[in-house]
Amino acid sequence: MELSERKRLILQAIIEDYIQTAEPVGSRNIAKNHDLGLSAATIRNEMADLEEMGYLDKPHTSAGRIPSEMGYRFYVDSLMQRYSFTMEEIANLQHSMDRKFMRLESVISEISDTISKVTNYPAIVEMPSCQKSRLRNLKMMLIERGIVLIVVVTEEGVVRNKRMGVAEEIDYEIIDTISDFLSGQLTGLCADDLTASRLMLIYEAMAQYGALLKSVVEFVLDCLEDSQNRVYIGGASNILNNPEFENIDRARKFLSFIDSHENITKMLGTNEIDENEHISIKIGSENGVEEMNDTSLVIANYSVGGKLHGKIGIIGPKRMNYARVVSSLEVINQRLGEILGKMLYGED
Amino acid sequence: MELSERKRLILQAIIEDYIQTAEPVGSRNIAKNHDLGLSAATIRNEMADLEEMGYLDKPHTSAGRIPSEMGYRFYVDSLMQRYSFTMEEIANLQHSMDRKFMRLESVISEISDTISKVTNYPAIVEMPSCQKSRLRNLKMMLIERGIVLIVVVTEEGVVRNKRMGVAEEIDYEIIDTISDFLSGQLTGLCADDLTASRLMLIYEAMAQYGALLKSVVEFVLDCLEDSQNRVYIGGASNILNNPEFENIDRARKFLSFIDSHENITKMLGTNEIDENEHISIKIGSENGVEEMNDTSLVIANYSVGGKLHGKIGIIGPKRMNYARVVSSLEVINQRLGEILGKMLYGED
DNA sequence: TGTTAGCACTCACTTTCGCTGAGTGCTAAC
DNA sequence: GTTAGCACTCAGCGAAAGTGAGTGCTAACA
To answer: Testing the interface with B: which of A237, A262, A344 to mutate, by most B Cβ within 10 A?
Structure first.
């Protein structure tokens, strides 16, 4: 059954008031504060209808109404208007993200700070990763006698390195030879290409350095698989600004969930974003994580050069300023892509 | 004025009871639960003395006593006995730290998790850094046309890298030449050695690549100075397990302080550890940070190979299980040194 | 038939008030 | 010097009463 225009207006008014005040909203307030040209009694009738239809809940008989999950869902799908930032706000926002970044880590943690500052909710930022990366460069350098540094660059531009102990007698020339050999053998391949038989051939070709080769290949494999989908969490304490978390037990439950990167990773894993929309809103139980059933999750995909990608988002109470959060994520998302592009591919 | 043996025993009993229960402790309880062979009335007299001398406070007339900051200070300096872990506990603890670590970041964040799990307080771990590092290796590699990767290794074994855009026409050979030249010029130097005049000479020697040289040197300088003394914070939500933080405003104040890395860095900066002791305990206002005056800070120095060093520690309520915290930090601290040594210098 | 005013009713929240019990300080006796 | 006894204090708890925002229903009005 379709909602009448009037019901939609009333529902919207209720949800927006509730988002602002966190108090159950009553018919009188709607009549007074919104110019609907209706009396409280009429609104009461409509509210009774909306409740019956499942869009509103009542905490108890003599309180006002609050939106149900279904009410929020309808709101974000059909009623919500985008929050529009002023040009100035956008400029400030972008400016606050433009710093001299030396490391990927600092970009990511800076972005999570920015998100949490703008939205006033705890922010989540995933490190960029990729489905199936290929090796672009492999270089071994002798740092000092007995220690070699291995540098791996993937097709997507991710660089990683590792120090490794080697026999004392191995010198610069040997390392260069091994380095060139391995580089030639492995460049352009992805993890799946490195079959056992292929590796056998490689080890045999330079059998006297088998152990070293093995360690290096292991490291390369680890880089290509890059299983650690690390996430950064910023502004976790922001959650305490919301009256629904004044209960210390609830706050503790929330914060200790948030504290664990594993939990967040799992949560992101179970909440994939539809191909054809760039932002996904999960309201309450929709997020599929039982402990977090009374919070909403808003996440966006970002991507860099069409290869690397990850998610950014926020977690907050179901009563959340969805409009503002969505707009913030859009602005930040775009800039993040630009910053990472510049950083990883040197697009200046 | 010296404290009599009996006063010391009573003070210790009060502090330890209070640490356990978080409730003001009364004379009757001390008489009953501790085998001092004294009646409650006698203990009351002694408690009155201790209060007068400044070791105890009274929240209000008809409650028991709680330790004052001075009381805690005396306790940790003179009364506290070390908490002794069983061999099994130590083994478990060490085992939980021994994982396959690929990156410095994961070691650090793992350690901060371990500390917070063992102590049940929020943990702080500083990234290792060093006063004055020298360049050990510099290597530039052309990743693809137009992009060069710079790898810097310092004397202490810290490796950093950066991608940089270069002119299209620069090929492998040119990069190798530049790389060897710069490496020859800069290896063994520290940031202070790179005076303006010395840099001038370098730039002039290969004037046609002046801009590139400049960028590379800038990056090297940044690595050597390594101003970012990053910290990791783990288990922040643990603070909510302590009854003194059931007040939501206090919890918020604490958590939002903790949320900011800047705050923590500043706090660590103002709390140096005395040369001749490896662990420092700052009780309440002693930590010098006004917002954190009702919390205590316990920090330890760790060092790797005598060069790299940093701090680990915890923040908790003044009513803290100091004995256990100190012992935990000692065990963890030692293992951390071993793990980092293995990782950075390949001491297997 | 849709809208509105009026009224009785509900119920969370706040305030008040007295009670309880743990704890203290003082005094007098051992 | 130690202890028993007693009067006094005061936070915390729970019951009771009061307050007010909000609802549902009914009847009258346009």
So the answer is: A237
